[in-house]
C-alpha cells in the first residue's frame, strides 16, 4: 500500500465508524497527540487537547461504544479530508506531513476543523502501522467546544 | 429598582426551587452582568502571570474587556481595555510584555498605569481637556497571590467577601513548599451553549459523577491496572482519576459540603487513591513532604497534608481544586453561552513529577478533549435546552433542605455531601445581588 492510500484508508475507517479497526492501525508503543499550543514541543509539562498512549487511545474507542457516553451518543458523523501529502522516507520510519479538514455533524450542529498532521509510519506486512500521529488544530488555542471525535 | 421588579425577582427564588427563567431569560442575564459581575470581587488570575514590569494578560469582567498589567510601581493594575478616544480595544487579546498600550485606530498611547501619554494631532484639542487615560477598575486586591478586582467603588472588602472560603486559597498555597506557585502548563479555553451558572452548580454536585461520568468510569475500570512505584505507566493518572469518579454513594454522602454567606462553597475530597492525593509510601510524595517540612516543620506539614478539599467555588465565576492545582474562570457571553479558561499551577519547589501529574490530571479531567469534561458539557447543553422550555417552570434544588447545619466559622454545612445547599446558597447570594 502506498502512503497516500494508507492515509485515505485511515480517514475512511474513522468516517465509517470503524473505530476498532482504526485503533488496530497503531503500534503498541504508539502516541496520539493533539497539542494545546502552537509549536508545542513537550506533552508532559504542557497540557494537550489529547495526549494518549495506545492504552488511553483504546479507552477512547471503548468510551465511544458505552451506552451512557452522553457526548458520544449518537457518535458524530464526520468527513476527514486529507490533503497536501508529503512523504519523507527515513531508515526505519516514514515521516508524512499532511493537512486535514474535518467536518463534524452531531445534535443539529456542524463544526469544521483544520489541522496540520504529522504521521510517523512503520512498514509492516506490505502496509503501515502508525507509530506517532500529531494533529495541530489551527484553533487549538481558541475557545473550543468539547471535542468528542477522533482526528 | 422599581418595587414591582424587585417583587418579581423575589418570586423566582424559593427555599427549595428556582424559576427556570434565571437560566434562560436574556433580561435577567443583563441584570446579572450589571449587578453581580459589575459588583462582586472576581478572580482574574495569579500574580505569577504578571511577574515583571510590563507583563500583562487580557481577560473579561462580565462584559468588560480587561487588561491585568504589572505597573512600574510594582503594583498590579486592572484596566478596562477601551481607548478613551473612540473606544477601540487598545490591546489585542492575549498576553505579553508592553512598554505602552498604543491604540491601533489613531495612535493614542497609554503607559502601564493607563495614563494617557501621547495623542497624535494634539493641536486639535484644548490644553488640559484630554481624558486622563484608560479607565482603571476601582478596586484591586490580592489574596495569597491570587488577583481579584471589583468594578464597584464600594462594597465588602475582599477578606470579608471570601469569609471562610479563604481557607481553600490557604490550602492551595500552603501545599506549595515555600508558598511558591506559578501558572504553567498551558491554558484550556472551552465553550458551551449554556448559562454560566450551570457549570458553577455542577462543580459542587457529588450526585452527578455516577451518572454523567458513567462511561469514563466504566472504561477506566476495564483498563489495565496502574503500576506500582517504579513500574508506572503514562496512562496511570488518567485511569486512576476516572476510576475515582465511580466512588460509591456512601463516599459522596460522607464528604463535607459547606457554603458561605456570599454564595461560595467547597466540598471535601472523595479521593481514596494514594497516588492521586498526597499519600505516603510513594517516593515522589515522600520527597515532596520532605521539602514541605523543610519550610514549615513536620507538624505543620502534616496538618497541611491532612486537609482534603475537592472543588471550591468563589461566587460568581471561579472554581478551583486546591489539592490538584487547577483553577477555572467562567466567562458569561450570553444567557446561553459561556467560555471557561482553565489554568494549571506548578509548585515550584516540589518534585518535577508532581507537575507532570498535574498536567496529566488536567488533560483527563478538565481538557477540551477529555473523557470527563466532554460529558459535563453535553449535559450543560441539554440542561439549557430543557430550561428554555416554558412548559414547566421550576427547577428543584431541595435535596437536604431544612437540614443545613450552622458552623462556628460562619459557614453552613449540608446535612450530607450531596446536599443541594450549595445551590440554595448560590441563589440566596444571587437574589441579594440582584435586589440591591
Task: Outline the structure in words.
- The complex is a heterodimer of chains A (151) and B (436).
- By secondary structure, chain A is of the alpha+beta class.
- Helices cover 20% and strands 48% of the residues of chain A.
- Chain A contains 3 helices and 7 strands.
- Chain A has helices at residues 3-15, 19-23, 54-65, and strands spanning 26-35, 48-53, 77-89, 93-106, 109-124, 127-137, 144-145.
- A 6-stranded mixed sheet of chain A has the order 2-1-6-5-4-3.
- In chain A, β4 (93-106) and β5 form a beta hairpin.
- Chain A is globular and about 45 Å long.
- The model of chain A has no long low-confidence stretch (mean pLDDT 97).
- Chain B has 436 residues and is of the alpha+beta class.
- Chain B folds into 2 domains: 42-150, Rieske [2Fe-2S] iron-sulphur domain (Rieske Iron-sulfur Protein, 3-layer Sandwich), CATH 2.102.10.10; 162-435, Naphthalene 1,2-dioxygenase Alpha Subunit, Chain A, domain 1, CATH 3.90.380.
- Chain B has 15 helices and 22 strands.
- Chain B has helices spanning 3-12, 21-24, 26-35, 158-162, 166-174, 196-202, 209-212, 214-221, 236-244, 249-254, 283-296, 298-306, 352-366, 373-387, 421-435, and strands spanning 13-14, 17-19, 42-46, 55-61, 64-70, 76-80, 95-97, 101-102, 109-110, 116-118, 139-143, 146-150, 181-192, 257-259, 265-268, 309-314, 318-321, 326-334, 337-347, 394-396, 405-406, 412-413.
- In chain B, the strands form 5 sheets. Chain B has a 9-stranded antiparallel sheet with strand order 13-19-18-17-16-15-14-22-21, with helices on both faces. In chain B, strands 6-5-4-7 form a 4-stranded antiparallel sheet, with no helix packed on it. Chain B has a 3-stranded antiparallel sheet with strand order 1-2-20.
- The mean pLDDT of chain B is 95.
- The A-B interface holds A 34, 36-37, 40, 44-53, 55-56, 59-60, 62-63, 66, 68-72, 107, 141-148 and B 184-193, 211-212, 214-216, 218-220, 222-224, 233-235, 238-239, 339, 344, 352, 355-356, 359, 362-363, 367-369, 371, 373-375, 377-379, 381-382.
